[in-house]
Amino acid sequence: PAAVCPLENWLDDGLLQAIAEENNLSETAFFTPSGKGFELRWFTPVKEVDLCGHATLAAAHVIFEILGYSKQVIIFETRRGKLFVEKKGKSLEMNFPACPPTPCKLSEILAQGLGQRPIEVLVADDYLAVFDSEATIRAITPNLALLSQLDLRGVIITAPGTDVDFVSRCFAPKFGIPEDPVTGSAHCELAPYWAHKLGKNLLTAKQVSKRGGNITCEVKADRVLLSGCAVIFMK
């Protein structure tokens, strides 16, 4: 779930943060019209973030379905540069910058926070901890107090999937998100990793949080295409 707040002009940052805190969802998206499309910002209940996938999907859905946007592609101007969302039938395809992770050493805080030692650790916007199986990913019960001590945004855990190419879960307690249900921005890190690992650019993914979600990922040069659907449940 993500909240979407269409604006005519930007409000004070403190007010935006207060609205996001009041919504108390992992993300609240705010947008205003701009020259070529829309300026887009995302806030957790605690702070503003540089990139969010599921709230971008939600914002695009509102623009297409409620505001009646007639063009095929929405251009969003964000802290991470231009993002593109294209309407393709019932799905929306998001075009985001890839964020390939690089190998790093396993810190004891990370190992203790996850309660398991991963077979590989990488770093990008988040720590990426790779495990051997989907069952391991589902079974992990993290120590969120320990994970909140880490220096990056959060922790992604991932493994090969049983009926998809890979599975994942995402924790960002420092940002007020104990576990994120479905995380588009994490797949900007996951897709390049698994594309290289599996030797293919079109991937099926499942985020195995309690709510769960399916994502189709395609790696194209320095971009990642993420496809999914959105449903409005409250207005």
Explain briefly what this protein structure is.
The protein is α+β, with helices and mostly antiparallel strands and 235 residues long. The protein contains 6 helices and 16 strands.
Name some characteristics of this structure:
235 residues; alpha+beta; 16-stranded mixed sheet; 6 helices; 16 strands; 24% helix; 37% strand
User: How widely separated are the two ends?
Assistant: 13 Å
Task: Quickly count the helices.
Answer: 6
List the uncertain runs. none
What profile does the largest beta sheet have? 16 strands, mixed
Helicity, as a percent range: 10-25%
User: Proportion of β residues?
Assistant: 35-45%
The whole-angstrom Rg is: 17 Å
N-to-C SSE string, H for helix and E for strand: EHEEEHEEEEHEEHHEEEHEEE
Q: Count the strands?
A: 16
Shape: globular
Q: What's the overall average pLDDT, rounded?
A: 96
Descriptive notes:
By secondary structure, the chain is α+β, with helices and mostly antiparallel strands. It has a 16-stranded mixed beta sheet that branches. It is globular.
Please specify the SSE layout and strand pairing:
Layout: E1 2-6, H1 13-23, E2 27-33, E3 38-43, E4 48-49, H2 53-65, E5 73-78, E6 81-88, E7 91-97, E8 102-103, H3 108-114, E9 120-123, E10 127-130, H4 134-139, H5 144-147, E11 155-160, E12 166-172, E13 177-180, H6 184-198, E14 202-207, E15 213-220, E16 223-228
Parallel strand pairs: 1-2, 3-5, 10-11, 12-14
Antiparallel strand pairs: 2-3, 3-4, 5-6, 6-7, 7-16, 8-9, 9-10, 11-12, 12-13, 14-15, 15-16
